[in-house]
Amino acid sequence: MIEFQVEGMSCQHCVAAVTKAVRALDANARVQIELENGLVRIESKEAADRLGAAIGEAGYTVKGAAPRAPGGA
């Protein structure tokens, strides 16, 4: 699982846009978004740089990415 810090998300439309961008790369990706913290967690077969680029192309600013172990450890 990869965790991104994303700026510019403020509503459910943003959640849908980010999810759509990620799933355009990997239709089976699992996407979890915390609007209040600007966190996007993605479980996908795609590389983190490609996922981050897709989020950026959707109009959001990706500030960083970090791998996370399953279960949040």
From TrEMBL:
InterPro entries named among the record's database cross-references: Heavy-metal-associated_CS (IPR017969), HMA_dom (IPR006121), HMA_dom_sf (IPR036163)
Keywords: Metal-binding
Residues of the HMA domain: 1-63
MF-aspect GO terms: metal ion binding
CDD domains named among the record's database cross-references: HMA
Descriptive protein name: Copper chaperone
Source organism (scientific name): Trinickia symbiotica
